[in-house]
Structures are given as C-alpha cells and as structure tokens.
Description:
By secondary structure, the protein is mostly helical. The protein contains one helix and no strands. The radius of gyration is 27 Å and the shape is rod-shaped.
Amino acid sequence: VEAGIIDPTKVVRIALENAVSVASVLLLTEATMTEIPGPAKERTLEPEMPM
C-alpha cells in the first residue's frame, strides 16, 4: 500500500500480459524479416588449372 499498489495480483497479471505481448511481437518480427531471393545467377564452369 505504501508504494501505491492496491492489488498485487493485478500487477502480476498485467506484467505477464505485457511480457507475452512483447515476446509475440519479437517472434512475429523475426518470422517476417527475411531476405528476398534475387534472380538465380548463371553458373559457368571454370577451366581447370594446368598442373
């Protein structure tokens, strides 16, 4: 009560909700940030080096 907290269970519940929200945003951001593949490069065979 001295810190202004009337219902400690509500504080814990809100903290858990915020933690889950942050975790889901981080997971979603990691899942959506990918590299777009460019056009396939044509591979040419290099001539063998003489021994």
